[in-house]
Every structure is written in C-alpha cells, then in structure tokens.
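Human: If only I could read backbone structure tokens as easily as an amino acid sequence. Underneath my words sits a plain record pairing an amino acid chain with its backbone structure tokens. Take your time, and here it is.
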Amino acid sequence: MDITTAEAVRNDYNLSPSRYVASDDQEPPLPLEEALVLLSHAEEERAEVDAELDQVLNALRFEGWRYG
C-alpha cells in the first residue's frame, strides 16, 4: 500500500506500518500437516541450493564456507 505525502503529514510523519495496514485481514494459521509439508519442501530446496553453492565455491577453490 502506498501512502501520500499528505497522509504522512496528517500523521506527523509516523510511517509505522501498523498505522496504514489493517490487521483484520489476517490469514488463518495453516493446519499443522500442511505446515510440515511446506517445511519439508523448504528443507529439500535449501539442501539443493547448498549443494549448488558447494559446487560453485569448490570451482572457485573456496573451502570451509559451510554455514551452520
């Protein structure tokens, strides 16, 4: 959401997001099973990206980068 300069002036230049974003539009929480599936997919994707990064860093002869 964009605010106008006039709105910012009216609000004493307070740019706090909570002033401009309604909290009534909150999404309901995900069911646990769905959240676990999404987490599993994210972990798989992270592992794939880590492997690709390893290949690039090894090609550059940069070792010992391992995160975590």
Observations:
- Helices lie at 5-10, 17-20, 32-59.
- DSSP finds three helices and no strands in the chain.
- Residues 15 and 46 are 35 Å apart (CA to CA).
- The mean pLDDT is 84.
